[in-house]
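Moderator note: this is an archived Q&A kept for reference. The question asked for a predicted structure of one protein chain; the sequence and the answer are reproduced below.
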Amino acid sequence: MPPQSPYENGAYLAANPDWHMEDSPWKAQQIGDLLTATQMPFQTAVEVGCGAGLILQDLAKRFPDKDWRGFDVSADAGRFWANWADGPVTYAQADFLAGAARADLILLIDVFEHVEDYLGFLERLRARADRFVFHIPLDMNVQGLMRGSMLRSRQKVGHLHYFSKPTALATLADAGYEIEAWRFTAASSHGGRQGRPLRTRLANLPRRLLFPLAPETTAMLMGGYSLLVLARPAD
């Protein structure tokens, strides 16, 4: 029997006891703003790798006429779902790809960088929805290389693959997706996260100054950003 993953054996929960819930309202706002701006039509939506499930709760409040479902293989993540038992979202501890369900929209929010065979995973997922929203941490940047941030991401939050904006978009294209819209998100400086390390707070000062002038250069040099992407299966 293969060893359990950190998401199943308690290791990830021990390292991340709130399963990133402090980031969830901010992520939900970014996703909701993208869906509103693009006027993306959908009725059923699934978050694959939904973790603690709070992103879906916030999206369900913003779009109450939609059917929201969350899937995660981790029983540790599933412990949080009892907090939302009376809410509008349905959760399942299951591998979404092991079933046959489809949705109008699939959300993959900070997920495929954790998956060993990420290209195969994305290719298998492609037929399961009409539209996809991806949120992708941009760990590959000059400051991160100099500070060893990618290794910390590997040890703390389980990132196995590291992306820049060009490689993230190329990965989706290689897996058979067509990009419809994308935007940077300021993952390191949003207001929902409390108690940031001093080095992060100091780095956020030049980020705020430089990003309006040269967003792509700032993300590549300074890090601290993620990529939010709306995509569809390529013809």
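Archived answer notes: The CA atoms of residues 122 and 180 lie 17 Å apart.
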